[in-house]
């Protein structure tokens, strides 16, 4: 069965089973396929882009920290979704304490139609992910794990991907340079 036809539960269960037996090769596919779902769950809780990034990254790291406590491989996807939701609630509660109550101090909201904005974002996202899929497996695996991290935990990433800690930064730089070059050469890649 090829990857596009496998459901997320199957992809996750297979990756976790392989990971538990010492094979990390399926983890990148799992992260790549499951991260959009986790991202949507975090954003659905009303988080900003930055907060959602933090929540998704934290949830992946929590999985690595607590994977031995999850008995059933097929339960990992539900565990991740639940973890993202709880982290998002926690972050959301903390951020509501910082809301500005003075309407004069609040910035004006843009008058852009959210539907048009969403369609434009999806088009950009499709072009981006097309080029990400064209990268080498090593680059895809690494970028999938660190995509949402401001300050990635290199030790955890090194362990998860079976890479030396010292090669993560340089490899990340080379992978991002390849991606940037591919995007700049693509006439359909437009950023505002």
From TrEMBL:
Residue intervals of the RNA polymerase sigma-70 region domain: 30-88
Top-level division of the source organism's lineage: Bacteria
BP-aspect Gene Ontology terms: DNA-templated transcription initiation
Pfam families: Sigma70_r2
Signal sequence residues: none
Keyword entries, A-Z: DNA-binding, Sigma factor, Transcription, Transcription regulation
Molecular function via GO: DNA binding; sigma factor activity
Family (UniProt): Belongs to the sigma-70 factor family. ECF subfamily.
Name used for this protein in its record: Putative RNA polymerase sigma factor
């Amino acid at each position: 069965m090829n990857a596009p036809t496998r459901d997320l539960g199957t992809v996750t269960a297979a990756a976790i089973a392989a990971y538990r037996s010492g094979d990390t090769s399926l983890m990148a596919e799992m992260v790549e396929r499951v991260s959009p779902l986790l991202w949507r769950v975090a954003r659905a809780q009303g988080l900003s882009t930055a907060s959602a990034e933090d929540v998704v990254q934290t949830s992946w790291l929590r999985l690595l920290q607590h994977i031995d406590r999850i008995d059933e491989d097929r339960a990992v996807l539900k565990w991740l979704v639940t973890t993202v939701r709880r982290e998002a609630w926690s972050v959301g509660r903390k951020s509501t304490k910082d809301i500005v109550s003075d309407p004069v101090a609040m910035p004006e909201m843009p008058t852009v139609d959210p539907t048009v904005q969403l369609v434009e974002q999806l088009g950009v996202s499709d072009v981006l992910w097309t080029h990400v899929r064209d990268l080498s497996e090593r680059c895809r695996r690494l970028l999938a794990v660190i995509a949402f991290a401001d300050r990635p935990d290199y030790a955890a990433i090194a362990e998860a991907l079976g890479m030396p800690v010292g090669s993560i930064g340089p490899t990340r730089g080379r992978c991002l340079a390849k991606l940037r070059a591919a995007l700049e050469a693509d006439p359909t890649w437009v950023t505002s």
